[in-house]
């Protein structure tokens, strides 16, 4: 399936309404999408719901000025650090440029606006981001191919560098390979165990759920379908839980012996590790707010706890949960949590 990206979205932050309208019109005529704000705080509020490809920001504004906005953005929203930030101002003294650069601005345009220069600067910055994204996409595609075509001790050793537990199963549901993180998890917890060439949950109820998920993933893989399901493993001796995401690896050609049919991703019960919100945004096309809810969900299973941590109502949490289910293709909290925890190692298929 071809990945058709929408035209780049530019956030224009400018308090002079006439100039703001002129800039927006120029950008739209060039083919860009736009959103606009009249001061830094309004722009920060917008960034809670949209993720632009570039920010074009005035410096001298009432309320929160451009410097203040950039300072707050770099401190409070580090996941947006890759978005190019271009200052637009009548302040052309070298010290003003230096201050902007020291705060992390990527470029600096001086008023009155030279629209040709503005468009050229925007195009150049977006081109740089595009190159970085292409490299990142290539790395993710390579990872997907490595899992689907897993073969050889060299590839097995690579998985040992991954903090997430990874277990590969063949067409019979038998273990082909399990990385060191999976073995460490089995050794120090009461949640899972390796019995011969099988993976089992220590708790009988949890094991029935795990084996059912493995059987369903196996059937999907053999019929060429994609399927993911999450299982929460709990133990009577431990108040925590381990999330397991079972993923079918659909057959595309003739099956080869030793080829993985199923991959399991096991999370560690470490509440201090936070899932990368920026990566969740990219993998599942989440808004910044949805990514924050998803990241918090990985460390707390109760909606009331999520609401308290994020300072919002239970109704707001329910609203974002519905969006998360829709965007990740899940319909159960267990599946969603497992997918979030496995996100850094997953490629969302077309």
Automatic annotation (TrEMBL):
<dbReference type="GO" id="GO:0006355">
    <property type="term" value="P:regulation of DNA-templated transcription"/>
</dbReference>
<keyword id="KW-0902">Two-component regulatory system</keyword>
<dbReference type="Pfam" id="PF00196">
    <property type="entry name" value="GerE"/>
</dbReference>
<dbReference type="GO" id="GO:0005829">
    <property type="term" value="C:cytosol"/>
</dbReference>
<dbReference type="InterPro" id="IPR001789">
    <property type="entry name" value="Sig_transdc_resp-reg_receiver"/>
</dbReference>
<dbReference type="InterPro" id="IPR039420">
    <property type="entry name" value="WalR-like"/>
</dbReference>
<dbReference type="GO" id="GO:0000976">
    <property type="term" value="F:transcription cis-regulatory region binding"/>
</dbReference>
<protein>
    <submittedName>
        <fullName>Response regulator</fullName>
    </submittedName>
</protein>
<feature type="domain" description="Response regulatory">
    <location>
        <begin position="9"/>
        <end position="126"/>
    </location>
</feature>
<feature type="modified residue" description="4-aspartylphosphate">
    <location>
        <position position="58"/>
    </location>
</feature>
<dbReference type="InterPro" id="IPR036388">
    <property type="entry name" value="WH-like_DNA-bd_sf"/>
</dbReference>
<dbReference type="InterPro" id="IPR011006">
    <property type="entry name" value="CheY-like_superfamily"/>
</dbReference>
<dbReference type="InterPro" id="IPR000792">
    <property type="entry name" value="Tscrpt_reg_LuxR_C"/>
</dbReference>
<keyword id="KW-0805">Transcription regulation</keyword>
<keyword id="KW-0597">Phosphoprotein</keyword>
<dbReference type="GO" id="GO:0000156">
    <property type="term" value="F:phosphorelay response regulator activity"/>
</dbReference>
<feature type="domain" description="HTH luxR-type">
    <location>
        <begin position="279"/>
        <end position="344"/>
    </location>
</feature>
<keyword id="KW-0804">Transcription</keyword>
<dbReference type="GO" id="GO:0032993">
    <property type="term" value="C:protein-DNA complex"/>
</dbReference>
<dbReference type="InterPro" id="IPR016032">
    <property type="entry name" value="Sig_transdc_resp-reg_C-effctor"/>
</dbReference>
<keyword id="KW-0238">DNA-binding</keyword>
<dbReference type="Pfam" id="PF00072">
    <property type="entry name" value="Response_reg"/>
</dbReference>
């Amino acid at each position: 399936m071809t990945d058709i990206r929408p035209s780049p979205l530019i956030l224009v932050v400018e308090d002079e309404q006439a100039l703001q309208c002129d800039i927006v019109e120029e950008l739209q005529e060039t083919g860009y999408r736009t959103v606009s704000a009249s001061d830094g705080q309004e722009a920060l509020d917008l960034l809670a719901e949209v993720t632009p490809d570039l920010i074009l920001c005035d410096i001298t504004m009432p309320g929160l000025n451009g410097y203040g906005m950039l300072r707050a953005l770099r401190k409070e929203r580090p996941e947006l650090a890759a978005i190019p930030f271009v200052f637009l101002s009548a302040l052309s003294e070298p010290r003003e440029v230096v201050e902007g650069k020291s705060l992390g601005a990527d470029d600096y345009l001086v008023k009155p606006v030279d629209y040709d220069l503005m468009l050229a600067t925007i195009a150049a910055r977006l081109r740089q981001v595009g190159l970085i994204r292409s490299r990142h996409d290539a790395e993710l595609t390579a990872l997907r191919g490595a899992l689907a075509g897993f073969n050889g001790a060299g590839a097995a050793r690579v998985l040992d560098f991954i903090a997430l537990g990874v277990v590969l199963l063949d067409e019979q549901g038998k273990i082909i390979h399990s990385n060191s993180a999976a073995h460490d998890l089995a050794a120090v917890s009461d949640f899972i165990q390796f019995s011969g060439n099988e993976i089992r949950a220590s708790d009988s109820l949890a094991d029935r759920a795990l084996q059912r998920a493995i059987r369903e993933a196996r059937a999907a893989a053999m019929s060429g379908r994609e399927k993911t399901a999450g299982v929460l493993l709990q133990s009577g001796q431990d108040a925590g839980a381990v999330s397991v995401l079972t993923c079918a690896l659909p057959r595309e050609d003739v099956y080869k012996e030793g080829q993985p049919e199923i991959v399991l991703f096991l999370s560690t019960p470490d509440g201090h590790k936070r899932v990368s919100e920026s990566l969740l945004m990219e993998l599942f096309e989440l808004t910044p707010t949805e990514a924050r809810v998803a990241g918090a969900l990985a460390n707390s299973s109760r909606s009331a706890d999520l609401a308290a941590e994020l300072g919002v109502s239970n109704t707001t949490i329910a609203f974002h949960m519905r969006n998360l289910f829709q965007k990740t293709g899940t319909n159960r909290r267990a599946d969603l949590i497992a997918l979030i925890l496995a996100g850094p190692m997953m490629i969302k298929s077309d």
